[in-house]
Specification:
This protein has 13 helices and seven strands. It folds into three domains: 2-193, no CATH class; 241-294; 305-450, Heat Shock Protein 90 (2-Layer Sandwich). By secondary structure, it is α+β, with helices and mostly antiparallel strands.
């Protein structure tokens, strides 16, 4: 009976070790409340597990077959607890579970090999082998704990599942697939394996490690290609913005040259009317000139030339498409000289903010095109209070919007989506909080970031 209780406790400890290794890849992203809840489930289940294993061994007998059966099913409750607490991560749970199983097989193979090589035959057969192998596994887990912690904590780099969902699931089940064949063949076999069996399991783990390393390389390379593509798209966007700005400035320069030319004729005509005493005609001429000047307003949204250019280009583009636009910018420092532009947030580059504004306003224009002409409207508000900056961009939109896991709008249209890349990059660079929502026929973007 003492052996049964000892083996039930040892197997429960093995399952708890497995749960700990599967927990490590998710540790950094869990809240304190989630960590506490997960380990509360595990530690409350552990004594129940000991009782169930002991009862099963007492009923069915403690031998190699029952030992294996407990191994094959005992991990399921512990794995279920992880699924309950760490939600919406089925793909990563599957991959982590498979990798932990591969590691378990490696330590079991090493411990079994040492038993075969170093201990008398009495300890290598039947029930006598079970407590020795369980103890050796726990021993290897303890002495290799620093290696295990480093490996499993870094098991899920951001780019590991960066491909399609189908490709991600195919890779996620691969470790379990590598384990499946040897585990199935071991169900009805004794614990005494040949050297050929042991070498085949070592090679299996070796090839699994190589496939994992290749997946890491492929994920990093895919991310690099994707970032290069996004960078090219952003550069193209900047070039379009600069081209529009250049055309706008050229048009303004032409207007100034025309007005200077016309002003000479206007002054001569005005002088002639005054000399002739026709004051009423001179007044009418002045009023007509004022009306013409008012038809060519030059909006100044802020003191920063690059921000003002971005706003001017895209506000004018919206107006040309019949979209009503309201733009309120309040980022200038009143203590600064009037001729000098001031930076809205310490450390925030005007270029980054200008590109962000260009992209989000362009997205709002694209969405507004899908609205009826009488429901096309955009509102832009940018403010800085000395410590924080806030950007609010709203546009009317009655269609349905899909959001990704980060809460950003998704699009399946080819050639679109660059704006969200720019927004995500800005958010990561400056620690901005981004909130999208759709309410009462308005699509709204709220962004806040600290300038300190």
């Amino acid at each position: 009976m003492l052996l049964i209780i000892g083996m039930a406790t040892g197997l429960t400890l093995l399952q708890t070790i497995g749960a700990y290794l599967r927990y490590l890849p998710f540790e950094a992203r869990l809240t304190e409340e989630e960590r506490t809840r997960l380990w509360k489930y595990i530690l409350l289940w552990a004594p129940i597990s000991v009782g169930l294993y002991a009862a099963y061994f007492g009923h069915a007998g403690l031998d190699v077959n029952t030992y294996k059966q407990v191994h094959y099913v005992g991990w399921i409750p512990f794995f279920t607890f992880s699924l309950m607490v760490i939600r919406n991560e089925g793909m990563r749970h599957t991959f982590v579970g498979g990798m932990q199983t591969l590691w378990f097989m490696l330590l079991q193979t090493v411990s079994g090999t040492l038993i075969l090589m170093l201990l008398p035959p009495y300890y290598a057969l039947g029930v006598n082998r079970l407590p020795v192998q369980t103890t050796l596994y726990i021993f290897f887990f303890i002495i290799l704990l620093p290696v295990e912690q480093r490996f499993f904590r870094n098991l899920l780099p951001p780019n590991l599942f960066s491909g399609s969902k189908l490709a991600g699931w195919c890779f996620a089940v691969l470790p379990f697939g590598l384990c499946a064949t040897p585990l199935i063949t071991l169900i009805e076999r004794p614990m005494m394996y040949t050297w050929t069996d042991r070498l085949s399991r070592f090679f299996l783990l070796f090839w699994g490690f190589l496939l994992y390393q290749y997946a890491l390389y492929a994920g990093k390379r895919a991310a690099q290609i994707r970032n290069e593509k996004h960078t090219n798209e952003l550069l193209t966007q900047q070039l379009r913005t600069l081209e529009s700005q250049t055309l706008l400035m050229e048009a303004r320069a032409n207007d100034v040259r025309r007005m200077r030319h016309d002003l000479r004729h206007y002054n001569r005509l005005l002088a002639t009317l005054i000399d002739s005493g026709d004051i009423n005609m001179a007044r009418d001429l002045i009023d007509a000139q004022n009306r013409e000047l008012l038809t060519q307003p030059i909006n100044t949204y802020c003191k920063s030339p690059v921000l003002n250019a971005a706003l001017t280009v895209y506000v004018q583009a919206a107006l040309q498409e019949g979209i009503r636009v309201s733009c309120n910018v309040n980022i200038d420092n009143g203590n600064a000289a009037e001729s000098e532009p001031t930076e809205p947030v310490t450390g925030t580059k005007y270029n980054d903010l200008a590109i962000l504004l260009s992209n989000v306003i362009e997205n709002a224009i694209i969405a507004s095109r899908k609205q009826p002409e009488d429901r096309r409207e955009i509102s832009v508000s940018l403010a800085y209070d000395g410590e924080q900056s806030a950007l609010v961009v709203k546009n009317r939109f009655d269609g349905s919007v899909r959001f990704d896991a980060e809460g950003l709008p998704m699009t399946t249209e080819r050639g679109h989506g660059t704006g969200m890349v720019s927004l995500r990059n800005f958010s990561q660079k400056y620690g901005a909080e981004v909130i999208f929502n759709q309410k009462d026929g308005w699509m709204q973007l709220f962004m806040y970031w600290n300038g300190k």
